[in-house]
Design goal:
The complex is a heterodimer of chains A (92) and B (425). With 92 residues, chain A is mostly helical. Chain A has three helices and two strands; from the N terminus they run H-H-H-E-E. Chain A has a two-stranded antiparallel sheet with strand order 1-2. In chain A, helix 1 crosses helix 2. Chain B has a domain of 266 residues: Amidase signature (AS) domain (Amidase signature (AS) enzymes, Alpha-Beta Complex). Chain B has an eleven-stranded mixed sheet, with helices on both faces. The chains are: A mainly alpha (92), B alpha/beta (425). Chain B: This is Glutamyl-tRNA(Gln) amidotransferase subunit A.
């Protein structure tokens, strides 16, 4: 395991950023596994800087009105709706 | 145990008699089907019913195909064994008791078991080629941009393509003919680069006379002995048919697995941010504010491997780590592309074993995610380089299927189909 192996606090912090609640067991398990995986990712240090000139062009289309999903269809999978809107939890 | 090939068995009929009239197709369950639930192998989308069809599904229907079901898969495409599916693992019809490979394991198994004539899967880092190899069927990962991703639930969108499975190269090519081509709903697509009146299926002639095959030595290192033996037997067979081979070196591929996982996880952490249980997806029925409710829905809705990748991707993109991981991974990606361009300037196609090992036993590899990632060493470089590749059954080792992978230049699918159809002739 490398010196800068990930700590349980870091796992909790990242989980909070990613909005994934974790159990204590999951924190333990991920802390161990992330140490191995991140140590392996460290070998990217050996990769030289490479010139990245992608031969790409932007794809544009005329800004014209076209059909979209109707409201009922778009709301069909929502657990809660109100007056034709999605209804989410309280923001604070 | 039941083979558990499908998550949802429901027949969707095509329209009239197109080129696929009378052909049955299994569709991987991360490809949207209007009115038929599309779960991505996840509890998060257990009850999600898309209000529209993916472009490839519209094209199947127009071609007259009959869709027979939504195929089992690793959750959100994250796995190489089909064991991360919330709906349970799929057994391998070609090697019972073994995994079918993943993540498109249900699609490959459907073709191998005769449950469907052909199937659609998706390939982000090998998810078509791995199960094709493990189940002894043919799978094609098209060039990035050949097939529309509209309606595919995104995992690593700079890497993934939808592609066909078939029992033969010609069957898979026929399905590719139907799904390939530009789509104004996916700006990364382009027109099929075929001459008028020709098709991918027409290319399945098995003519390899004068074909130049490059064999990257790095992709044989560390592979199972029986797999390597089967591989060389297949190459010798192609030589007998008029092809020649030479060894090539791709030094960059030594870093392909880590580059692939950093990029795929980073993209996953962003793409899967949409699953909050509000517009669609698992509803946690939790109290608390917006953030707490989301975190609870995602805790309950996602399995271990998905959480692992979202967290590692979030970590790799977070302040202070971005340059160390993500930027270096993009450098490695560009390096891999350069290496392939060079090798393909002196060979028509490159060849390797598709997977360095025969199919794992069910349950063998769940506990060590890193070991699992390393098994993708031969397939991920192709996605990093946006190139097409095909996996064709090459024979068996100890009664277990071995796949041979051919890699071609961008939009060189015809060449791969021609060469692939010579294998096992």
């Amino acid at each position: 395991m490398s010196d800068d192996a990930v700590s349980p606090e870091e796992v909790r912090h990242v989980a909070e950023l990613a909005r994934v609640d974790l159990s204590d067991d999951e924190v333990d398990q991920f802390t161990r596994q992330f140490a191995d995986i991140l140590e392996y990712f460290e070998t990217l240090d050996e990769v030289p800087e490479v010139d990245r000139d992608a031969d790409l062009t932007n794809v544009m289309r005329p800004d014209e009105e076209r059909d979209s999903l109707d409201r009922a269809e778009a709301l069909r999978n929502a657990s809660e709706t109100e007056d034709g809107y999605f209804k989410g939890p309280n923001v604070s | 145990m039941s083979a558990n090939i499908f998550i949802t068995e429901e027949e969707i009929d095509g329209e009239g008699d197109g080129p696929l009239a009378g052909t049955t197709v299994a569709v991987k369950d991360n490809i949207s089907t209007e009115g038929v639930r599309t779960t991505c192998g996840s509890r998060m989308l257990e009850e999600y019913v898309p209000p529209y069809d993916a472009t490839v599904v519209s094209r199947l229907k127009e071609a007259g195909a009959t869709i027979v079901g939504k195929a089992n898969m690793d959750e959100f495409g994250m796995g190489s064994t089909n064991e991360t599916s919330y709906f349970g693992p799929t057994d391998n019809p070609a090697a019972p008791g073994r995994v079918p490979g993943g993540s498109s394991g249900g699609s490959a198994a459907a073709v191998a078991a005769g449950e469907a004539d052909v199937a659609l899967g998706t390939d982000t880092g090998g998810s078509i080629r791995c199960p094709a190899a493990f189940c002894g069927v043919v799978g094609i990962k098209p060039t990035y941009g050949l097939v529309s991703r509209y309606g595919l639930v995104a995992y690593g969108n700079s890497l993934e393509q939808i592609g066909p499975f078939g029992e033969t190269v010609e069957d898979a090519a026929e399905l590719l003919d139907v799904i390939a081509g530009d789509d104004d709903r996916d700006a990364t697509t382009r027109e099929v680069p075929l001459e008028d009146n020709s098709s991918y299926a027409d290319a399945a002639t098995g003519d390899v006379d004068g074909l130049s095959i490059g064999v990257p030595t790095e992709l044989l290192e560390g592979a199972d002995e029986g797999v390597v033996e089967t591989f060389w037997d297949a190459i010798a067979d192609l030589e007998d048919q008029g092809a020649e081979y030479h060894e090539v070196s791709l030094p960059s591929v030594e870093h392909a697995v880590e580059a692939y996982y950093v990029i795929a996880m980073s993209e996953a952490s962003s793409n899967l941010a949409r699953f909050d249980g509000v517009r669609y997806g698992h509803d946690a029925d939790a109290d608390g504010n917006w953030n707490e409710t989301f975190a609870q829905a995602r805790k309950e809705g996602f399995g271990d491997e998905v959480k692992r990748r979202i967290l590692l991707g979030t970590y790799a993109l977070s302040a202070g780590y971005h340059d160390k991981y993500y930027k270096k991974a993009q450098d490695a990606r560009a390096w891999v592309k350069q290496d392939f361009d060079e090798a393909l300037s002196e060979a028509d196609v490159l060849a390797s074993p598709t997977m360095p090992v025969p199919p794992f036993e069910l349950g063998e590899s769940l506990d060590d995610p890193l070991q699992m990632y390393l098994a993708d060493a031969n397939t991920v470089p192709v996605n990093l380089a946006d190139l097409p590749a095909i996996s064709v059954p090459a024979g068996e080792t100890d009664g277990l299927p071995v796949g041979l992978q051919l890699i071609g230049p961008a939009f060189g699918e015809e060449q791969l189909i021609r060469a692939g159809s010579a294998i096992g002739r």
